[in-house]
Design a protein that fits this description.
Layout lengths: L1 E9 L4 E3 H7 L4 H8 L3 E3 L2 H12 L3 H11 L11 H16 L8 E5 L10 H8 L7 E4 L5 H14 L5 E8 L12 H4 L5 E9 L5 E9 L7 E2 L13 H5 L6 E2 L1 H22 L9 E4 L4 H11 L10 H4 L6 H11 L8 E8 L3 E8 L1
Parallel strand pairs: 4-5, 4-6, 11-12
Antiparallel strand pairs: 1-7, 2-3, 6-7, 8-13, 9-10, 12-13
Helix pairs in contact: 1-3, 3-4, 5-6, 10-11
The protein binds oxa(dethia)-CoA.
The site of oxa(dethia)-CoA has 20 residues, from helix 2, helix 8 and helix 10.
């Protein structure tokens, strides 16, 4: 079976609590904690610097518009990229697995916002790892990125194509949000970070047992971002920025309802496919989108809260990075032990969702 033999994470050193956000937009610590369970999140140093200035700005929308149009102090290049985070998490996972990057057969990476429109972030990461011919695949699978990546890696390995694959979920999302009242529904939720895992083909009955993937492309308007997409000409324009179309959009209530429904369905599909019951699963490590979503799923399925491993309080929603970050922390905390049955599950833009069953 194909087993996760090393994990790693990376988050920017710069932390933003709900208090700072409350000085940038009309929100409160109480609102954010009650609605999402988030108390703080890590964001890139650029976003952190920007938020310090936004908090003091007398005209916040005008300040935010000028940042979108000209960058902070006229600087439009990021000092940290999503690949920086992916690289750090990957290096930690490789070290934990006891291998060098050169021993990888393939990289499967997922990020919502890439470093560049092209080439894809998997290739940028591969080069930064010092590799020159290892295949690199990028998924743009949103929050479900790691679950999809693990499924793809597992299937390629089951087919005998590869023996050792690096799966990465990495996000630097904070640069895209409007941190004024105009974007407060999303800006308080999402954050930056990366998680990685080395998957190795081994004999024995420990490893990925099954994966279950789904998408619903009729729901793209529920959670989308045009940014530099090919759906507009030119891809980036002042008009697009002025119309607010360059920023992410979300129908929070719609996403919430679908998240609870799809999590419920895929968790049941995963246990039924394996001929087991929910009570047989020792630990659920699910996408840290919103604590209320996780609680609603637990209530709907009768899963006790203590069987979920949650860390959203400290990291917010890091999209594709959230499941591997939570998995890494669950392992470090001793919340997953050898022999445990672990289910990973995620849901996000697409809409896309899925689950992996793993014998640890
Ligand atoms: O990875 C998957 C991605 N997305 C998600 O998981 C998000 C899923 N959705 C959610 O988590 C929730 O819908 C939110 C946390 C976004 C919002 O919670 P809600 O309980 O669904 O609130 P709501 O959308 O019903 O909004 C309630 C009010 C609105 O004001 P009015 O229209 O009732 O006057 C919002 O404008 O809360 C307002 N609001 C805020 N107030 C304070 C929206 N954002 C904020 C904010 N602070 N940050």
């Amino acid at each position: 079976m194909n087993r996760i033999v090393g994990t790693g994470i990376a988050v920017p050193p710069t932390v933003v609590d709900n208090g700072l956000l409350s000085r940038c937009m009309s929100t409160t610590d109480e609102w954010i904690v009650q609605r999402s369970g988030i108390r703080q999140r890590h964001v890139s140093p650029d976003t952190w610097r920007m938020l310090q200035r936004l908090a003091e700005a007398p005209d916040k929308p005008a300040f935010m518009d000028s940042v979108f149009a000209q960058g902070l102090d006229g600087c439009i290049d990021s000092s940290m990229t999503v690949t920086d985070l992916a690289l750090e998490a990957s290096a930690m996972a490789l070290k934990a697995a006891g291998i060098r990057a050169q021993e990888l057969d393939c990289i499967v990476e997922s990020s919502t916002l890439p470093d560049l429109a092209y080439p894809h972030t998997g290739c940028v990461l591969q080069g930064r790892l010092g590799l020159t011919s290892t295949p690199a695949i990028s998924l743009q699978q949103g929050c479900a990125g790691f679950v999809y990546g693990l499924a793809i890696a597992d299937q390629m390995m089951r087919g005998g194509m590869y023996r050792q694959v690096l799966v990465v979920g990495a996000e630097l999302l904070s640069s895209a949000f409007d941190y004024t009242d105009r974007g407060r529904d999303m800006a308080v939720l999402f954050a930056d970070g990366a998680g990685a895992a080395v998957v190795r083909a081994e004999t024995g009955n420990r490893g990925v047992i099954s994966s279950h993937l789904h998408s619903d492309g009729t729901m793209i308007d529920a959670l989308s971002g045009e940014l530099c997409g090919s759906s507009t000409f030119p891809p980036v324009s002042k008009k697009k920025i002025d119309d607010g179309r360059a920023r992410p959009r979300m129908n929070g209530r719609q996403v919430f309802v679908h998240a609870v429904r799809r999590f419920r369905e895929v968790i049941l599909e995963c246990v039924e496919a394996n001929g087991i019951t929910l009570g047989d699963v020792d630990r659920f490590v699910v996408h840290q989108a919103n604590l209320r979503i996780i609680e609603a799923v637990g209530d709907a399925l009768g899963i006790p809260p203590d069987r979920f491993f949650n860390n959203i309080e400290r990291f917010g929603n890091t999209a594709a990075a959230s499941v591997p970050i939570a998995l890494h922390e669950a392992l470090a905390a001793g919340a997953i032990r050898d022999g445990d049955l672990v289910m990973l599950a995620s849901f996000g833009t697409g809409l896309s969702w899925g689950a992996n069953m793993i014998r640890w």
